[in-house]
From TrEMBL:
<keyword id="KW-0410">Iron transport</keyword>
<keyword id="KW-0813">Transport</keyword>
<protein>
    <submittedName>
        <fullName>Iron complex transport system ATP-binding protein</fullName>
    </submittedName>
</protein>
<keyword id="KW-0408">Iron</keyword>
<keyword id="KW-0472">Membrane</keyword>
<keyword id="KW-0406">Ion transport</keyword>
<feature type="domain" description="ABC transporter">
    <location>
        <begin position="6"/>
        <end position="242"/>
    </location>
</feature>
<dbReference type="InterPro" id="IPR051535">
    <property type="entry name" value="Siderophore_ABC-ATPase"/>
</dbReference>
<comment type="similarity">
    <text>Belongs to the ABC transporter superfamily.</text>
</comment>
<dbReference type="InterPro" id="IPR003593">
    <property type="entry name" value="AAA+_ATPase"/>
</dbReference>
<dbReference type="InterPro" id="IPR027417">
    <property type="entry name" value="P-loop_NTPase"/>
</dbReference>
<dbReference type="Pfam" id="PF00005">
    <property type="entry name" value="ABC_tran"/>
</dbReference>
<dbReference type="GO" id="GO:0016887">
    <property type="term" value="F:ATP hydrolysis activity"/>
</dbReference>
<dbReference type="GO" id="GO:0006826">
    <property type="term" value="P:iron ion transport"/>
</dbReference>
<dbReference type="InterPro" id="IPR003439">
    <property type="entry name" value="ABC_transporter-like_ATP-bd"/>
</dbReference>
<keyword id="KW-0547">Nucleotide-binding</keyword>
<dbReference type="GO" id="GO:0005524">
    <property type="term" value="F:ATP binding"/>
</dbReference>
Amino acid sequence: MTKHSLSAHQLSAGYADTIILEGLDFQVPPGQITVIVGANACGKSTLLRTMSRLLPPRHGQVLLDGKSIHRTAPRQLAQVLGLLPQSPIAPEGITVADLVSRGRHPHHGMISRWGRKDDEAVAQALEATNIVELAERPVDELSGGQRQRVWIAMALAQQTQVLLLDEPTTFLDISHQVEVLDLLIDLNQQRGTTIVMVLHDLNLAARYADHLVAMAGGRIFASGPPADVLTEANVRHVFGLESRVIADPTSGRPIMLPLGRHRMAKTG
């Protein structure tokens, strides 16, 4: 499978009169899992929205395979690059199967019809996210965690080679968070899909990332292997938090232990 390149160059973007990103450069490692972390309002979601063309840049550009995404036809772009935004909204009354099926729309033109490949893609997405039994239920009747898995299934059904996900584990309990992240690992390893996602949990980010990016103030403060990025000094700068970073005894990946002002003293 061809590994597509995605990058941002001197990117500035924002909303109304507020600039969120300013002069940002970002090269997504092809075929890897990149996780973006940072404090609230640091620009994580703005970066994903701009790199997917949902938000136009004020300055700079986003390149897919060396070509501006704004010079790429929408359907052609959607066949390569998919986005699961934060808090998406489903049409009223739509069923789970119908919403997941919408992930196949970029693969159909004026003439092409729904076929076996589409059926297989939807069935695989439903099964991978464990929502087969929900297929005929209206999305608006589901719990927050169930709805989140439906949106992830739609993104999987799209079968893009680059996938951007903004907080895909929102509303999920810890077991389903791990289940979804394991699923994304499988997608990356089996299909070679390039994945970029925003996560709030630093320890899950360090566990699942090949490439970890820490943002602060609309810029990339640090990036690289998790062990190089998740450090006590970087946590202090990015989050204003004192912590201890140790090695996970199972994976060897870094784990951040927040100290806080009221940490327990040792006893015994």
